[in-house]
Amino acid sequence: MKIDDSSNLGSIASPGAKGIESSQNREPARGADRTGTDRAEVSGRAGKISEAITQDAASRAATVERLRLEVAEGRYNPDPAAVSRAIVGESLAQGATAGGTGKK
Prior knowledge:
The protein is an all-alpha fold. It is built from two helices and no strands. The radius of gyration is 25 Å and the shape is flat.
């Protein structure tokens, strides 16, 4: 899955990046709540990600239930060649993400 982050947060300096400023010299943001409660707002992108995760979980649950029924009824007959390709592919992918080449 490819994630395209176009939020361009790299151009925003962190609070401590240019030295520490006195809190007396800073003015509160316009409309800032001075009651001492913290707030966080999530972007629409975070909502879309959450929705996609929920849909993926539901899809996986349906697949697992279907496979469970096939196994219970004796109708599950996986393709041995496909299984072996998946095992080798997963092994190579794990080797690549672990910094290995996958070859010896």
